[in-house]
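Q: Two folds, back to back.
A: First:
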Amino acid sequence: MSGIIRAYKRDDEGVLHFREAWYDDEDQQFVVNHGVVGHQSKTDEANVDDDSAVDGLMAAFAAQCEEDGYAEIPESEQFWVVAQIALKTKDGTERDRHLERKAKAALTGELAWRGLGIVDRSEIGNGHLNIFCLCPDVNKAVNAIKICVRGEDLDFTKLTVAAAPHSDPTAFRVKHSPKQGVGFTL
Protein backbone atom coordinates (compact mmCIF):
# COMPACT_ATOMS: atom_id res chain seq x y z
CA MET A 1 0.00 0.00 0.00
CA SER A 2 1.39 3.39 -0.90
CA GLY A 3 0.27 6.92 -1.59
CA ILE A 4 -2.28 8.59 0.59
CA ILE A 5 -5.47 7.45 2.26
CA ARG A 6 -8.08 10.22 2.56
CA ALA A 7 -11.45 9.67 4.25
CA TYR A 8 -14.39 11.84 5.28
CA LYS A 9 -17.31 11.71 7.71
CA ARG A 10 -20.22 14.01 8.53
CA ASP A 11 -20.92 14.45 12.24
CA ASP A 12 -24.39 14.68 13.81
CA GLU A 13 -24.57 18.40 12.95
CA GLY A 14 -23.68 17.76 9.30
CA VAL A 15 -20.12 19.12 9.61
CA LEU A 16 -17.68 17.36 7.28
CA HIS A 17 -14.48 16.04 8.91
CA PHE A 18 -11.48 14.44 7.23
CA ARG A 19 -8.57 12.18 8.03
CA GLU A 20 -5.65 11.34 5.82
CA ALA A 21 -2.42 9.41 6.20
CA TRP A 22 0.74 8.93 4.18
CA TYR A 23 4.34 7.86 4.59
CA ASP A 24 6.99 10.55 4.24
CA ASP A 25 9.95 8.48 3.07
CA GLU A 26 12.32 11.46 3.19
CA ASP A 27 11.79 11.95 6.95
CA GLN A 28 10.85 8.29 7.56
CA GLN A 29 7.62 9.30 9.26
CA PHE A 30 4.06 8.05 9.16
CA VAL A 31 1.90 11.19 8.98
CA VAL A 32 -1.75 11.53 10.00
CA ASN A 33 -3.51 14.78 9.14
CA HIS A 34 -7.06 15.43 10.37
CA GLY A 35 -9.64 18.11 11.08
CA VAL A 36 -12.79 19.87 9.98
CA VAL A 37 -12.99 20.40 6.23
CA GLY A 38 -12.19 24.01 5.42
CA HIS A 39 -10.13 24.65 8.56
CA GLN A 40 -6.40 24.26 9.19
CA SER A 41 -5.79 20.64 10.11
CA LYS A 42 -3.83 19.03 12.92
CA THR A 43 -0.93 16.76 12.04
CA ASP A 44 0.63 13.90 13.98
CA GLU A 45 3.87 12.23 12.93
CA ALA A 46 5.44 8.99 14.09
CA ASN A 47 8.95 7.87 13.24
CA VAL A 48 9.14 4.61 11.31
CA ASP A 49 12.38 2.70 11.75
CA ASP A 50 11.52 -0.07 9.31
CA ASP A 51 10.01 0.70 5.89
CA SER A 52 8.32 -2.70 5.90
CA ALA A 53 6.05 -1.48 8.73
CA VAL A 54 4.45 1.17 6.49
CA ASP A 55 1.94 -1.18 4.82
CA GLY A 56 0.74 -2.32 8.23
CA LEU A 57 0.38 1.26 9.46
CA MET A 58 -1.59 2.23 6.35
CA ALA A 59 -3.85 -0.82 6.70
CA ALA A 60 -4.44 -0.09 10.40
CA PHE A 61 -5.27 3.54 9.56
CA ALA A 62 -7.76 2.46 6.88
CA ALA A 63 -9.38 -0.03 9.28
CA GLN A 64 -9.68 2.61 12.02
CA CYS A 65 -11.26 5.06 9.56
CA GLU A 66 -13.80 2.46 8.53
CA GLU A 67 -14.55 1.57 12.15
CA ASP A 68 -15.09 5.26 12.98
CA GLY A 69 -17.43 5.80 10.02
CA TYR A 70 -14.98 7.60 7.74
CA ALA A 71 -15.03 6.72 4.05
CA GLU A 72 -13.48 7.90 0.83
CA ILE A 73 -15.69 10.25 -1.18
CA PRO A 74 -15.83 8.89 -4.73
CA GLU A 75 -14.68 11.33 -7.40
CA SER A 76 -18.16 11.08 -8.95
CA GLU A 77 -19.58 12.74 -5.80
CA GLN A 78 -17.02 15.55 -5.76
CA PHE A 79 -16.76 18.75 -7.78
CA TRP A 80 -14.41 20.34 -10.26
CA VAL A 81 -13.44 23.78 -9.00
CA VAL A 82 -11.38 25.77 -11.49
CA ALA A 83 -9.28 28.75 -10.46
CA GLN A 84 -8.87 30.77 -13.64
CA ILE A 85 -6.42 33.66 -13.87
CA ALA A 86 -6.56 35.95 -16.90
CA LEU A 87 -3.24 36.34 -18.72
CA LYS A 88 -1.94 39.09 -20.99
CA THR A 89 -1.23 36.76 -23.92
CA LYS A 90 -3.24 33.97 -25.54
CA ASP A 91 -0.67 31.18 -25.13
CA GLY A 92 1.20 32.43 -22.07
CA THR A 93 4.81 33.47 -21.57
CA GLU A 94 7.66 32.13 -19.45
CA ARG A 95 6.47 34.53 -16.74
CA ASP A 96 3.03 32.87 -16.93
CA ARG A 97 4.63 29.41 -16.59
CA HIS A 98 6.29 30.67 -13.40
CA LEU A 99 2.88 31.94 -12.23
CA GLU A 100 1.42 28.51 -13.01
CA ARG A 101 4.03 26.70 -10.88
CA LYS A 102 3.63 29.19 -8.01
CA ALA A 103 -0.19 29.07 -8.10
CA LYS A 104 -0.33 25.26 -8.27
CA ALA A 105 2.04 24.90 -5.32
CA ALA A 106 0.14 27.46 -3.24
CA LEU A 107 -3.29 25.96 -4.00
CA THR A 108 -2.06 22.41 -3.40
CA GLY A 109 -1.01 23.36 0.14
CA GLU A 110 -4.06 25.51 0.83
CA LEU A 111 -6.51 22.77 -0.16
CA ALA A 112 -4.62 19.81 1.27
CA TRP A 113 -4.08 21.16 4.78
CA ARG A 114 -7.82 21.92 5.02
CA GLY A 115 -9.19 18.65 3.64
CA LEU A 116 -10.55 20.51 0.63
CA GLY A 117 -9.24 18.27 -2.10
CA ILE A 118 -6.42 18.18 -4.59
CA VAL A 119 -5.00 20.14 -7.49
CA ASP A 120 -5.56 17.72 -10.37
CA ARG A 121 -3.92 19.60 -13.24
CA SER A 122 -3.34 22.99 -14.83
CA GLU A 123 -3.21 24.36 -18.33
CA ILE A 124 -2.43 27.62 -20.08
CA GLY A 125 -4.38 28.58 -23.16
CA ASN A 126 -6.99 30.88 -24.58
CA GLY A 127 -5.58 33.75 -22.52
CA HIS A 128 -6.07 31.98 -19.19
CA LEU A 129 -4.27 29.90 -16.61
CA ASN A 130 -6.74 27.22 -15.47
CA ILE A 131 -6.03 25.20 -12.34
CA PHE A 132 -8.40 22.24 -11.95
CA CYS A 133 -9.10 21.15 -8.37
CA LEU A 134 -11.13 18.14 -7.30
CA CYS A 135 -13.01 19.12 -4.12
CA PRO A 136 -15.63 17.65 -1.75
CA ASP A 137 -17.08 21.05 -0.74
CA VAL A 138 -17.46 23.77 -3.39
CA ASN A 139 -18.14 26.80 -1.19
CA LYS A 140 -15.31 26.14 1.24
CA ALA A 141 -12.93 25.40 -1.65
CA VAL A 142 -13.88 28.66 -3.40
CA ASN A 143 -13.24 30.63 -0.19
CA ALA A 144 -9.88 28.91 0.32
CA ILE A 145 -8.85 29.61 -3.27
CA LYS A 146 -9.74 33.31 -2.91
CA ILE A 147 -7.78 33.57 0.36
CA CYS A 148 -4.81 31.75 -1.15
CA VAL A 149 -4.69 33.89 -4.30
CA ARG A 150 -4.80 37.08 -2.22
CA GLY A 151 -2.18 35.80 0.23
CA GLU A 152 0.23 34.72 -2.50
CA ASP A 153 -0.01 38.00 -4.47
CA LEU A 154 -1.39 36.21 -7.54
CA ASP A 155 -3.47 39.20 -8.76
CA PHE A 156 -6.87 38.66 -7.23
CA THR A 157 -8.40 41.12 -9.75
CA LYS A 158 -7.81 38.59 -12.55
CA LEU A 159 -9.26 35.57 -10.71
CA THR A 160 -12.47 33.83 -11.72
CA VAL A 161 -13.55 30.65 -9.93
CA ALA A 162 -16.13 28.27 -11.36
CA ALA A 163 -17.43 24.87 -10.26
CA ALA A 164 -19.15 21.87 -11.83
CA PRO A 165 -20.13 18.41 -10.65
CA HIS A 166 -17.42 15.86 -11.41
CA SER A 167 -20.00 13.92 -13.41
CA ASP A 168 -20.79 16.95 -15.63
CA PRO A 169 -17.57 18.86 -16.35
CA THR A 170 -19.38 21.03 -18.91
CA ALA A 171 -21.80 22.53 -16.36
CA PHE A 172 -19.46 25.14 -14.87
CA ARG A 173 -21.10 27.94 -12.91
CA VAL A 174 -19.20 31.05 -11.86
CA LYS A 175 -18.70 31.24 -8.08
CA HIS A 176 -16.40 34.28 -8.05
CA SER A 177 -15.58 36.83 -10.72
CA PRO A 178 -13.99 40.29 -10.76
CA LYS A 179 -16.82 41.39 -13.08
CA GLN A 180 -20.52 40.70 -12.52
CA GLY A 181 -22.40 38.80 -15.18
CA VAL A 182 -19.32 37.44 -16.92
CA GLY A 183 -19.58 33.90 -18.26
CA PHE A 184 -17.00 31.17 -17.87
CA THR A 185 -15.12 29.41 -20.64
CA LEU A 186 -12.12 27.15 -20.41
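A: Second:
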Amino acid sequence: MNLVLVDDHFALVPADPDDPEAGAVLVRGAALVRSFRTLFEYCWYTAAPCPDGDTAVPAEDALSEQQRAVLRMLASGMKDEKIARALGVSLRTVSRLVSELMQELNTGSRFEAGVRAARRGWLD
Protein backbone atom coordinates (compact mmCIF):
# COMPACT_ATOMS: atom_id res chain seq x y z
CA MET A 1 0.00 0.00 0.00
CA ASN A 2 1.29 3.42 -0.90
CA LEU A 3 1.15 5.93 1.92
CA VAL A 4 2.48 9.45 2.35
CA LEU A 5 2.75 10.73 5.90
CA VAL A 6 2.79 14.50 5.58
CA ASP A 7 3.07 15.34 9.27
CA ASP A 8 1.40 14.34 12.55
CA HIS A 9 -2.02 15.45 11.29
CA PHE A 10 -2.16 14.67 7.55
CA ALA A 11 -1.59 11.60 5.35
CA LEU A 12 -2.29 10.71 1.75
CA VAL A 13 -3.62 7.23 0.99
CA PRO A 14 -4.73 5.79 -2.34
CA ALA A 15 -8.42 6.12 -3.10
CA ASP A 16 -8.30 2.62 -4.60
CA PRO A 17 -5.11 0.59 -3.95
CA ASP A 18 -5.82 -1.56 -7.01
CA ASP A 19 -6.19 1.40 -9.37
CA PRO A 20 -3.20 3.79 -9.51
CA GLU A 21 -5.26 6.20 -11.63
CA ALA A 22 -7.92 6.64 -8.91
CA GLY A 23 -5.99 9.33 -7.07
CA ALA A 24 -5.48 9.79 -3.35
CA VAL A 25 -7.46 10.75 -0.29
CA LEU A 26 -6.23 13.31 2.22
CA VAL A 27 -6.70 11.86 5.69
CA ARG A 28 -6.87 14.34 8.57
CA GLY A 29 -6.71 13.71 12.24
CA ALA A 30 -3.85 13.07 14.62
CA ALA A 31 -5.23 9.77 15.95
CA LEU A 32 -5.75 8.25 12.48
CA VAL A 33 -2.40 9.48 11.16
CA ARG A 34 -0.70 8.13 14.30
CA SER A 35 -2.25 4.73 13.50
CA PHE A 36 -0.84 4.85 9.96
CA ARG A 37 2.58 5.81 11.34
CA THR A 38 2.48 2.95 13.85
CA LEU A 39 1.56 0.51 11.09
CA PHE A 40 4.39 1.82 8.91
CA GLU A 41 6.93 1.53 11.75
CA TYR A 42 5.79 -2.00 12.53
CA CYS A 43 6.21 -3.02 8.88
CA TRP A 44 9.59 -1.28 8.68
CA TYR A 45 11.05 -2.93 11.78
CA THR A 46 9.77 -6.42 11.00
CA ALA A 47 10.78 -6.37 7.33
CA ALA A 48 13.50 -8.64 6.01
CA PRO A 49 16.56 -7.11 4.34
CA CYS A 50 16.26 -6.67 0.61
CA PRO A 51 18.37 -9.18 -1.30
CA ASP A 52 21.37 -7.79 -3.22
CA GLY A 53 20.45 -9.32 -6.53
CA ASP A 54 21.48 -12.81 -5.57
CA THR A 55 18.02 -14.35 -5.75
CA ALA A 56 18.80 -16.51 -8.77
CA VAL A 57 22.20 -17.67 -7.54
CA PRO A 58 22.68 -21.42 -7.30
CA ALA A 59 23.65 -23.21 -4.13
CA GLU A 60 27.29 -24.15 -3.77
CA ASP A 61 26.51 -27.77 -4.62
CA ALA A 62 25.12 -26.60 -7.99
CA LEU A 63 28.67 -25.66 -9.01
CA SER A 64 30.83 -28.24 -10.71
CA GLU A 65 34.02 -29.42 -9.01
CA GLN A 66 36.00 -27.62 -11.70
CA GLN A 67 34.13 -24.35 -11.05
CA ARG A 68 34.76 -24.67 -7.31
CA ALA A 69 38.45 -25.26 -7.96
CA VAL A 70 38.66 -22.19 -10.21
CA LEU A 71 36.88 -20.12 -7.56
CA ARG A 72 39.32 -21.23 -4.85
CA MET A 73 42.35 -20.58 -7.04
CA LEU A 74 41.10 -17.15 -8.07
CA ALA A 75 40.51 -16.30 -4.43
CA SER A 76 44.08 -17.31 -3.60
CA GLY A 77 45.32 -14.82 -6.21
CA MET A 78 46.35 -17.21 -8.97
CA LYS A 79 46.45 -15.89 -12.50
CA ASP A 80 44.48 -17.57 -15.29
CA GLU A 81 47.61 -19.11 -16.83
CA LYS A 82 48.60 -20.80 -13.57
CA ILE A 83 45.01 -22.03 -13.03
CA ALA A 84 45.01 -23.52 -16.53
CA ARG A 85 48.25 -25.39 -15.82
CA ALA A 86 47.01 -26.60 -12.41
CA LEU A 87 43.77 -27.94 -13.91
CA GLY A 88 45.40 -29.23 -17.09
CA VAL A 89 43.08 -27.21 -19.32
CA SER A 90 43.52 -24.42 -21.84
CA LEU A 91 43.54 -20.74 -20.99
CA ARG A 92 40.35 -20.41 -23.01
CA THR A 93 38.64 -23.03 -20.81
CA VAL A 94 39.62 -21.09 -17.68
CA SER A 95 38.20 -17.90 -19.21
CA ARG A 96 34.97 -19.74 -20.01
CA LEU A 97 34.73 -21.14 -16.47
CA VAL A 98 35.29 -17.70 -14.95
CA SER A 99 32.66 -16.26 -17.28
CA GLU A 100 30.18 -18.99 -16.27
CA LEU A 101 30.84 -18.31 -12.57
CA MET A 102 30.25 -14.60 -13.06
CA GLN A 103 27.02 -15.32 -14.92
CA GLU A 104 25.77 -17.79 -12.30
CA LEU A 105 26.63 -15.36 -9.49
CA ASN A 106 24.98 -12.52 -11.43
CA THR A 107 28.06 -10.29 -11.26
CA GLY A 108 29.76 -7.90 -13.62
CA SER A 109 33.34 -8.52 -12.51
CA ARG A 110 35.62 -11.22 -11.18
CA PHE A 111 36.10 -9.25 -7.98
CA GLU A 112 32.35 -9.04 -7.37
CA ALA A 113 32.03 -12.78 -8.03
CA GLY A 114 34.68 -13.40 -5.38
CA VAL A 115 32.89 -11.17 -2.89
CA ARG A 116 29.56 -12.93 -3.43
CA ALA A 117 31.15 -16.36 -3.17
CA ALA A 118 32.87 -15.32 0.07
CA ARG A 119 29.60 -13.97 1.51
CA ARG A 120 28.05 -17.37 0.90
CA GLY A 121 30.91 -19.11 2.64
CA TRP A 122 31.97 -20.89 -0.55
CA LEU A 123 35.63 -19.96 -0.08
CA ASP A 124 36.04 -21.25 3.48
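Q: And?
A: The beta strands are 4-5, 10-14, 24-28.
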